[in-house]
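Q: What would this chain look like folded?
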Amino acid sequence: MSEVLDATIISSNAPPIGGSLGASFLPGRGVSARVWAPLFEELNLVIDGIEMPMTATGGGYFETWACSARVGSRYGFRPPGNKTILPDPASRYQPEGPFALSAIVDPSSYDWAGHNWSGPDSGPQLIYELNVGTFTREGTWAAAAGRLQHLAELGVTIIEIMPIAEFPGRFGWSYDGVFPFAPSHLYGTPDDLRRFVDAAHRYALAVILDVNYNHYGPNGNILPAFSEDYVTHRYKNEWGDAVNFDGPSSENVRAFILANAAYWIREFHFDGLRLDATQQIFDQSPTNIIAEIAETVRSAAGSRRTYIVAENESQDVTLVRSTADGGYGLNAIWNEDFHHSARIALTGRLEAYYSDYTGQVRELLSCTRHGFLYQGQRSRWQSKPRGFWARGLPLSRTIAFLENHDQIANTRGGARLAATTDRGLWRALMLFQGQEFASSRPFTYFADHHAPLSDAVARGRDEFLRQFPSLSAGTLPRPDDIAAFENCKLDWTECDRNTWSLRLYKDLGELRRCDGVLGMDGEIDGAMLSEQAFLVRFFGGVRGDRLLIVNLGSDVRLGACPEPLTAPSLRSRWQLLWSSEDPCYGGEGTPDIDPNGTWYLPGRAAVVLTSRPA
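A: My prediction, written as structure tokens:
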């Protein structure tokens, strides 16, 4: 390896590097490189085989400027006397994966179309969860972009991309990503990702990215080679060492994570983030890191609107309370209470964490009226209180869903609800890929690790699923089985075959999008009509009211209906607006709900009524 030639490599007129992490390319001027590496007293940058010393600037940071570097140059960092060249912890691209050198990219070279895009609307959203590797047969950004029109016509408003941070192997969920700034090379180049987001905005589709800030992946993680303080052992994390947000040198770790959050918004024009498993993000600092992430995302977006959501097992409403009320200011949180109760209602299974629920319609009604079911009561399954007081929380702060990647994978062979439940009640406000056309493809957990880690992951998966008596060990494919991964890829010919399901979701999306009452976060009330049926009334003022009636049981003939919420407003009557029993969905049709004041509720169905002038 040749020694540095200052005149050709390092410019005496180089601008100050400042706080930018990683390698930043400036056209015509070269590359600035900055890394936090407090484990070393000296550090060299190696770029295109040329090695140069870096300047220690205090606090464990090293910087340098390379004038001759170009886009595509491979680079890394080498401690003096060490034969190993380490890739960049803040690498923007790993063309050969996590065990190779990093590559220089120029984010400014992409010409954004813009489309006058200002971000997602402030109203209720229809979110579609998508795994790039299985969404199409090709498993690339380019192929996924070819399906954007389908999502737009479906009524989707936000696409939620499962994690994409560079990870080892040929396939994976990427929740064990090891290069937080590098989009996985398996799906295409960074500019391919930019084209996808740009094309989504052309269809008025917002795109948010699922990010994992609670732990780092176990395989290919080079962060500990630069500092042991990236993680902390003060807290117990379910999947590895917790990220250090409040211990020694945590200010540098916080800066690393906040830079990452801003990076996805600025350089890829994402419209927000989904924060994975926030109950495993531990921080006793005066300002919680989650609140700082939200503030950073909005600042990075400038005038664009953003949408930031969280997964939180305990459904801590602090996440979505305003900062003025002591919260963290996120837009929404996943409603697992709704999912668990609805899944029991549709499948009858009461295993594991589902045992805290009954699946009775009164639970679904309570979710509709109050958001969460558990707001501090004791959980029998967890043997401790669950949830937080959520009175006054708008329902738009919760995300209701029937299927997502975790919950499908936690079933026998990754089976979807389309294959296990009644079709008339099969609907959701959050869609997992393929759900809209009743995909028969499973979705199991997959991660392409080599032994012995692959064996440990398989054992861990089996141990987790033992909480479900119906899932005996060995019934599910191994996570490292490439055939199982390939089997998870959607079969888009089913979209043409299952037109009944696609029409159902399109009509629901249009109803929610176009109806000025159902799509608003306004006044609602609800009541039980029988042990298996309930109603929700949406008060629309001059636009008229709407009445949603859900019956999970057999037909109900009330004869008379003394429930006041069924009464039409003054000088109006109820008229059918939508029914899940419409023949175009494969249903049997819907007779008059209120013939001569005698209410009839069709079984295993949902209907929406609208008030019309009498």
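The longest strand covers residues 605-613.
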